[in-house]
Amino acid sequence: MKATLDHVGIAVADIDAALAFYRDALGLDIEAPEEVTSQRVRAHFIPTGPSALELLEATAPESAIATFIAKRGPGIHHLTLRVDDIVAALAHLKARGIRLVDEQPRPGAEGALVAFIHPSAAHGVLIELKQAASPGANLAPKALAWGDLHLTSVNDGVLRLDGGAMFSVVPRPLWEKKAPADDRNRILLSMRPLVVQGAWGTLMIDCGAGDKMDAKQRDIYGLDRARHLDHALADAGLSADAMDVVLATHLHFDHFGGATDAALRPRFRRARYLIRAAEWEDATHPHERNRASYLQDDFVPLKAAGVVDFYEGDTAIRPGVRVVRTGGHTGQHQIVFIESAGQTAVFTADLIPTVAHIQDPWIMSYDLFPMETLAFKRRFIREAIDRGYLIFFEHDPLVAAGYIREKDGRRYVERVL
After folding, report:
1. Residues in CB range of 338: below 8 A, 6 or more apart
2. Containing H/E element for 172?
3. Which residue segments constitute the domains of the chain, with CATH numbers given?
4. Nearest by Cα to 227 from 158, 180, 278, 160
5. What does pLDDT average to over the chain?
6. pLDDT (tens digit per residue) in 120-162
7. How far apart are alpha carbons 27 and 301 in whole angstroms?
């Protein structure tokens, strides 16, 4: 049985005081908190390189963390060792007479499977075994009522892009704490379209990469198609034929490749496809810098099929849904505001692709006009913090949506979905 240190669990009685020390005094980055309802605990992970710290906050008096603090006070609660196969690891330990708290694994934070070894077998230390979630395990559909609208974050699987390209001038020692790279320097990313349902019908914002890439392209981009958009829609009680409108933030393959199927027909047979006219012009006249991202088979067949509606400028798409041009990533890249009952959610596409990109200068090398991205992003994030916008992150593999918060000049994301 091979095991490596994953993290150290620390029970805290006062989370604000703990964050003031670890985040503010030590300058460590705190990931968005995650509720582990089965254990009545809220987990705050702090990446520190190959392993991490985990601040554990009780959410109920009967929580094991609350009991621990009542008996011993705050402090180190457990050590977590990462294993490849937790079922085999438990069988290995049981065969050797090791006393276990859990003989079968159970759900833990970050979509992992966990099980505990009794402290009496580990010389007074509570040991947690953890089998990390497989890619895509945290991409189940997530739904949210939003005033008169209903929002469902779905997914079209995962892909991998070069970490250096995703963070540009940010040094690798900073970004790899938030987005570990594989042996080809690629980081894991999601593709999360958003379904918006209202009295006026059903609209999907972006639609993933689809299934037209050949084996070489799938290998380059690390596309995992074990689970894709059709699976996610079915899990959410939807289907491709339920879509009335498909809206493009821009026409890059990882956002709109799924608009057509392998036979180059419209994938969403009942839908009208809404595309900003100036983005269509750019996409159908690519140059050396953007040709690899604008794949003509993704969108040109839509016009031939007569299913595209073009529009000019920032406009209302449907009641409560409007688009705003950001530029930067592409000349006509846009974000989508979803507003109802005094609440505002924003699908930020590639303006803020992941939680790691909430700092103003953390901008992708893929952006054609990075200074335009910076100018818009600086204004928008300030507005999002001050007005409490819910942000949908299209490419974050763990967080579908959350609020950008700021305390003592440091930004973080309060996870919602």
Report:
1. 146, 149, 151, 196, 320, 321, 344, 345, 346, 347
2. helix 172-175
3. 4-131 (3.10.180.10), 142-415 (3.60.15.10)
4. 158
5. 93
6. 999 999 999 998 776 555 678 999 999 999 999 999 999 999 9
7. 51
Of 336, 346, 358, 329, nearest to 274 by C-alpha is 336
User: Please, what is the Cα angle at 387 between 384 and 393, to 5 degrees?
Assistant: 30
**Inter-residue contact 58 to 69 (CB < 8 Å):** yes
Compute CA 267 distance to the chain's CA centroid, rounded to the nearest angstrom. 24
In whole angstroms, what separates CA 171 from the centre of its chain?
Answer: 22
Cα gap 52→45, rounded to integer Å: 7
What pLDDT, on a 0 to 100 scale, did the predictor assign at position 229? 96
Place of tokens 């559909």: 141
Q: How far apart are alpha carbons 395 and 268 in whole angstroms? A: 22
How far, rounded to the nearest angstrom, does the alpha carbon of residue 400 sit from its chain's CA centroid? 5
Residues 218, 257: contact at Cβ < 8 Å? no
Burial class (CB in 10 A: 0-12, 13-18, 19+), 26: exposed
The total of other beta-carbon atoms located within 10 Å of residue 128's CB is: 22
Pairwise CA distance, residues 347 & 334, whole Å: 9
Instruction: Give alpha helix (H) positions in 62-162.
Output: 64-72, 86-95
Please give the pLDDT value at position 134: 62
pLDDT (tens digit per residue) in 253-304:
999 999 999 999 999 999 999 999 999 999 999 999 999 999 999 999 999 9
Distance CA 395, CA 254 (A): 10
Q: In residues, how long is the chain?
A: 417
Residue with tokens 């300058």: 27
Take residue 90 and report the two structure tokens written for it: 């438990």
Contacts with 407 (C-beta within 8 Å, 6 or more apart), sequence order: 24
Using CA atoms of 122, 126, 127, 128 in order, give the dihedral in degrees to the nearest 10.
Answer: 160
Q: Which of 21, 302, 319 is nearest to 146 (CA)?
A: 319
